[in-house]
């Protein structure tokens, strides 16, 4: 009995105290991998993150426009060199207008159409008058027709026959009067009929001769003059009809649309609420100038053709080369200024008429200086240069370039060596930026 109870006892030394060793190893390996993966996801973006940087294109300008020393700074406004207020040459209501402010047009494009019913009728009337006068001229040139000559001859022969009859009657009346058989009244009547017949024959004889000869040269010349006058009337009517279609005289940009459909257009300005004197204003925005009023005290520092650097308040980082194109021949007494115009050499879409603009006039070339070298001068913002180096962006990475700097003007630095122009230069490089770091540019 005791032996059976002994067999029933549990041997606790053989009871398992945990999972198998292989399971524990797998669990620990999985936890480690999860922790490592999470840590990599946190660290990897920081290791591979591209720094956000601001860049500006290194500008290459002609050596003649490179800043050596600024002799004068002046402010003014950008203006179109040739602004056109396109007017109508005829009066009428606007039937159609096909442009709006800011549209670019080419020379010859149709901008406005006016109602043309009256001009069509005038042209038709002038053409009819021309046909009528041309027919009369042709008739005069060709002379009388054979039928007309034959009719004139027949009338002459008939008159001659009547003359012969009246002559016979007159002789009979004379004989009767001499023999005292007839009255004096009968003789006078016969004489009158004879004289009338003689005049008629003479008249028809001349008519016959004129019909054979045809119109006089003076009559033909007069008809030719009337035909030319009618041709001028036709040409004038055609011109007026063509002028109801208003086309762009040059290629450019529409600055203002002054009329709407149904408005009346005249050839002279009346007022905002009346007929309009022009339909659109336009200009070529590739031909811009900066208009400045220069104090008479500073006028001696400038000369025609002198170069300068142009900047605008709207885009202060953009610089444009220019030169003095026009100097007013007279001064403004009230302002004590002289107006000059600086032509923008290569304007772009950032420039707009009436924008504020500043011009830094550069020192004139010294007499006897050599020719301007063809190699362009590269300009970059002063904040892009640090200890003789700049960073440029190539294929999404910052690349350090060693440069040789020159004169500083208007917050820009002249680069003598190291850049050729057109590179994207990092402005105000972030601290710690190294050669080869990944970067991305601001929009």
Detailed description of the structure:
The structure is a single chain. This protein folds into 4 domains: about 50-60 and about 375-440, conserved putative lor/sdh protein from methanococcus maripaludis s2 fold; about 70-80 and about 285-360, Beta Barrel (Elongation Factor Tu (Ef-tu), domain 3); about 85-115 and about 245-285, RNA polymerase II/Efflux pump adaptor protein, barrel-sandwich hybrid domain (OB fold (Dihydrolipoamide Acetyltransferase, E2P)); about 130-235. The chain starts with a helix and ends with a strand. Strands 3-12-15-14-13-16 form a 6-stranded antiparallel β-barrel. The chain has helices spanning about 1-5, 20-50, 115-140, 145-180, 185-215, 215-240; strands at about 50-55, 60, 70-80, 85, 90-95, 105, 110-115, 245, 250-255, 265, 280-285, 290-295, 305-310, 320-325, 335-345, 355-360, 375-380, 390-395, 395-400, 405-410, 410-415, 425, 440. It is α+β, with helices and mostly antiparallel strands. Helix 3 (about 115-140) packs antiparallel against helix 6 and helix 4 (about 145-180) runs antiparallel to helix 5 (about 185-215). About 35% of the residues lie in helices and about 30% in strands. The model is unreliable at about 45 and about 365-375 (pLDDT under 50). The longest helix is centred in the middle third of the chain and has 33 residues, at about 145-180.
